[in-house]
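pinging the channel bc i need a second pair of eyes. not urgent but kinda urgent?? the chain im working w is below, pasted from the shared doc
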Amino acid sequence: MSGTSGSYNAVTWLLDRNVDEGRGDKLAFTDTVTELSYGELQRQSRRMANLLRRLGVRREERVALIMLDTTDFPVVFLGAIRAGIVPVPLNTLLTAEQYAYILADCRARVLVVSEALYPVVKDIVGRMSDLEHVVVSGKNAFGHKLLSDEIVKESDSFATAATHEDEPAFWLYSSGSTGMPKGVRHLHGNLAATAETYAKQVLGIREDDVCLSAAKLFFAYGLGNALTFPMSVGATAVLNPERPTPARMFELLNRYNPTIFYGVPTLFAAMLHELTNEGAGKRLRVCTSAGEALPESIGNAWKARFGVDILDGVGSTELLHIFLSNAPGDIKYGSSGRPVPGYRVRLVNEAGADVADGEVGEMLVHAPSAGEGYWNQRNKSRSTFEGYWTRTGDKYTRDADGRYTYCGRSDDMFKVSGIWVSPFEVESALITHPTVLEAAVVPEADPEGLLKPKAFVVLRAGADAGDLHEVLKEHVKQKIGPWKYPRWIEVVDSLPKTATGKIQRFKLREGAHQ
């Protein structure tokens, strides 16, 4: 893709190509209430482009999306890109003040918001100096413009903006688990880069696939799963505007019989506890997992119950999708697999030197889908995007077969008696005990001021916490070694997580030191 000098608009490749190749009548998206064919999506995206122009939004300016996963999302997202306007999908679980920060930061001229989410922002939209219009997706406009009313006024003819593949196409805000979110600027060429590498060469996505993603479209992972990847081959995506609970996911698996199911480790673990739905997922040919590393026990249990493998991988907002993954026929549960074709990785120590097999190092990635940088955060851009290489902040080891095993975030790792301890390794050992549903491990200082592992565990229903502490300590010693066991174990009702399902260990660290 890179290096071309002519115009390139991502919508031409993602959407218009499907219509040109005869898939205009094929179902592109359904959200369980409405359906959208490729041809209708093309027409609606052109109307959306005209609507944004009528609202005074110019090329390269931003339109913010606080939208549930309905068929309106691809219309707005692709309509903006068609016009050379930059859509900024936002996490639908943020607070009003977090939205105020991001809307001011990206200077969105228009906000498109789902009716159910409008009450969260109703008190802040009036004080956003750059925001000129609010458009509501749904039936109640709350005194603003209603998307369905406005879009039908527009022509379905629009001359697609002659953008460049190296021009910003959309922004995604990082999850901001340890601070305010950062706006990652992604380019027109980045969408195709993820589809031509992971989707095509690892997932093997096909035109006859039906895709279901638990991760939402505003996440980098979900955007690839349910928009970029199916559209890259003319497949169909099932969108879920509701919370991705185990019951809801089983309902959609039974109703739509998808062939690809994209999940996260916490969801797979929760779904395995549902004792019904044995017949669900009968057409599944592959599942994927990202967000956090997939424990080996969950991968094996899922394969045993549903007869289909989970391809565990790792990606990031900065790199748009998965860059390291297990692959069909090359799966080792407990590892993150090998680099996706088209991506290169390095593991480096604190001095920036490459580490040997078996040694812990921070992962750097040479990626065709890397973002251009963070908006208005030059120092953070420089420390993350180092020329062709992107610093992930993840610690890994590499084995002699070239597989990579996740150890933890750089700021989650700690040393015990001079040896690195991976919170993830201890957590994976803990959840293999039949009483433990979830676990999180953080460092805690002992009376001598030395760091040791402390575990927070969520027990399975009916488990007795009585004599469990010593039992679990011994269980971990037997599994992974005597120095790695948690010196303290605290039973909790739940673990703090981001909207992507990542455990927020920094919150547990803060609590552990109070």
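so The chain has a mean pLDDT of 93. and The first strand starts at residue 27 and ends at 30. — does that match what u expected or am i reading it wrong
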